Amino acid sequence: MSFMNSLNISCARLGLALLLTLASSTLRIEAQESPSLTELEEQAFKQAVAFAEPSIVRIQTVGGLDRVGQILTSTGPTSGLVVSEDGYIISSAFNFISKPASVLVELADGRRFPAIEVATDRSRMLTLLKIEAENLKPAIPVPKDELAVGQWAIAAGRTYSAQVPNVSIGIVSALNRIWGKAIQTDAKVSPVNYGGPLLNIEGKVMGVLVPLSASATTETAGVEWYDSGIGFAIPLEDVYAILDRLKEGEDLHPGLMGVTFRRNDLTEGELEIDMVRPDSPAYRAGMRRGDILLSVDEMPLSRVGHLRYALGTHYAGETIPATFRKGEEVIETTMTLVETLIPYESGFLGILPTREPIDAPRTGVTVRYVYTESAADQAGLKKDDRIVEFQGEPVKEYADLWTLISRERPENEVSVTFERGNLKETVKLTLTTTTEEIPVELLDEFIPPPEEGDVDKDLPTGFVTVPMEAHNHEYWAYIPNDYNPSYQYGLVVWIHPGGDTMEASIAQDWQQLCERRGLIMIGPKAAKIGAWNLNEAEFIKDAVLDIKSRYRIDDRRIAIHGYGSGGAFAAHLAFKYRDTFRAAAIAGAPIPSRPPENDPEYRLQLLFSCGDEDPEFEKVDASVKILKRLKFPVVFQVLKGRGHTYPTPARLEEISIWLDSLDRL
Amino acid sequence: MNTLPSDRLRFLAAYAVLLAGLLVPVQSLAQVDTNEQVSQMIQPKMVKIFGAGGLRNLHSYSTGFLVSPEGHIVTVWSHVLDRDQVTVILANGRKETAAVLGAEPQLDLAVLKIVREGLQLPYFDLEETTSAVPGTRILAFSNMFKVATGDEPVSILHGVIAAKTKLTARRGAYEVPYDGPVYIIDAITNNPGAGGGLVTTTDGQLLAMIGKELRNNESNTWINYAMPMSELTPVIRQIMSGDYVSQQTKNDNEDNPLSYQPLDFGILMVPDVVFRTPAYIEVVEDGSIAAELNLRPGDLVLFVNDNLVQSCREFREQLGNLEAGDDLSLIVRRDDALITVETLVPNKPDTN
């Protein structure tokens, strides 16, 4: 317990001084026996604050926003810390979230100066100010290697009084918190001392008090923990280390590398890369899906949490080493971290493929439909053209073309070779972003009835009810009457709202659509019709697997569809089972939670349908905006003048066309 | 930190008793310095108060402390006292009835008196109060969250005096009436039922009474404050002796047509469009006081008589408080310099 030692030493020193003064007051003899530890500590606290006091400044702001998000911004004074003789002051970025028109700094001696905001560190949430003053007393840092858990920690600010700093006493609760960035203390930390110092018992500065959160990075994150016994301070040594960069006016940002992992569990499992953002540091370093990240910045990684530590203290622009394993090969590389990542977005050619019978010869992708003003349209592609090459690579079937286009981003120039009758032509075109247009003139694609010999007597058509014994559940299914096992069908999974399976009306609405658009529909039923239980997700997934095992389903056209509370659950399932669902048509409900990253491998398309007088409309609108920002392809069908209702047959027709165009490229 | 090995503690205690006996008749307060001893000294004089409330978020309980052997109790003035009589549970668990003897809403202070006569209760001597500075260690005694019932002792928190300051707080949307000094403490006393509790030094001297649940107006955080005994004691004494008259007088001169406006000084402000429009001067009239003082359009007014003004609204309020003949000092920011100008407030032109 090194802190006990250092405490004893400082107490002893103090004790000696006290004893000298106490010697005359003979009545307090017990002080000799035990110079009241409590009293000596209290003296030490006060002396520590007095020692640091000249470096603690008061900051006042004028003008600015009165509200940031849910938080009413403060109008009161805040605190800062002198970090150079010539007028640089470090403070918490939180103190300036109201974007004040003017900032004033009041020094310990009462002099006031206008201040300019020089730069902000968005990782450690610090703001550097400059005033035109000389001969200031910079704060003296405690070396990081002298910090230890259990040491006294004194949080100070200059908020309540300009003359006497406000204080709170605690201990160092932990070191290297918030992914290596912060000291944690149980002293009370709040807006009354954000920007002020966390002092040790000698009055040297351990760190600068800031609100921080391990999970969120917004400018107000961590404020909800004020005065709770969980407070944070950025080590002053780390502040001095970045001071020169901040003085240059450079804003610092957390450094990002651009990968996600197969397992999101922070606490176990090797780091198998799931997604790599396009053009990200990880991408440039050669990392791809399935590679295993082994170390970053010399730190061996055996769980995802380690990577947060390895990156936590680094800023965008810094170059750090990394090693990863690709198959059997271990690759050493470096990455230059970046401030922002480009969301994944696939390029769009602008065609729908003709759906061939399963045993058709693989000789290319025949165009079923060309989207107007798409890249394909501009390049002159027409219905029935057969695409045989893309970027010089052979295209034998739909999957080939899909993979090749997935590698390309919007704005990329590509070459496409197609056959038209006896002609073979190569055109250059520039891919665009995916369209939101529903091709309303898209005609049904006729699936011929099966030949006499192909009819499987064991595969019923029309309405069927399928029990799922393993789950104690059942689902209903509608199979087109002329089901032809030589063709692949789309699948629509209907998630009923709580309290009503809507079985009859859905069947009536969708029967003809299924026949014409080559769709199979299934309707799993909640064990308790009143509401879906989250545990029933497995059952729904198994129902999909069950129907897939009997009928020919096109994996790329499996959609989930729900209304009201069923819509919210459908969205939940679509995000949960990215490898199963390619589309979600959500009626009268927003997404229930923050969506995951868009994923190039598992593309998910979304359609929202909502009355503009539906009480949920604003939330649905917000969901659409969030998803678009994340570059998900989203269609928003606004039902004018309607409240909370299921779409009308005319709008369902549109939805069915959208479902029929999910395999667009 | 506060616990010593128990052997040593016992030894110390015995030693202290020995000393007290052998040496001089010393003040008992000066020698108790373990939290346990302080607790033993304080707890018998604390009471739990139960009264009105219980609806919605209004708690129906608070804390108080005895200041006379006959049963005078000091507590916080709150809705809990909003009935003819309240129930008081003494430290030994005895249930008594008490009535409000007097209150000073300005101080959020009330003095109760146990109805029954002829009591001989342990009590705090109002002579033996003290004061403290930031960093002073304290103990806070209160029945927060009603966790103690019957003869159970009230809860003790420890902490330090964080600051001594003026209160700019609001309870809901209301300002507090009291504008004197308070202690801010770093123990979390801002809890239901803690109001009326006691803050002492670690050697058991009375420091302050725990205040109500309040938000700090300036930082928008809940604050833990206590009213210094030095502010309360004179009023408590007056209430106890029956010659106290509440000073419910506040001179409110807002909306007074005679208050000063920026135009009285020849200043026209920028349009006040948002809640916190900074107090920028838009026009300075020729030949006006502002012109004499060499104020200029674009100057940002930051201080009026050393009071920070954060908006046009606050600037108007500050001017509204002036009277003819007052000293007026303005600090304005012009580019990156602070400029101070001083003048005397003239008579209002139309009141000549």
Brief synopsis:
Chain A contains 14 helices and 34 strands.
Write up what this structure looks like:
The complex is a heterodimer of chains A (665) and B (352). With 665 residues, chain A is an alpha+beta fold. In chain A, 22% of the residues lie in helices and 29% in strands. Chain A has an eight-stranded mixed beta sheet, with helices on both faces. A six-stranded antiparallel beta barrel of chain A has the order 1-4-5-8-7-6. Chain A is elongated, with a radius of gyration of 33 Å. The N and C termini of chain A lie far apart (66 Å). Residues 1-32 of chain A have low confidence and may be disordered. Chain B is of the alpha+beta class and 352 residues long. Chain B has a six-stranded antiparallel beta barrel with strand order 1-2-3-6-5-4. In chain B, strands 7-8-11-16-13-12 form a six-stranded antiparallel β-barrel. In chain B, strand 21 (327-334) and strand 22 (337-344) form a beta hairpin. The model of chain B is unreliable at 1-32 and 248-255 (pLDDT under 50). Classes of the chains: A alpha+beta (665), B alpha+beta (352).
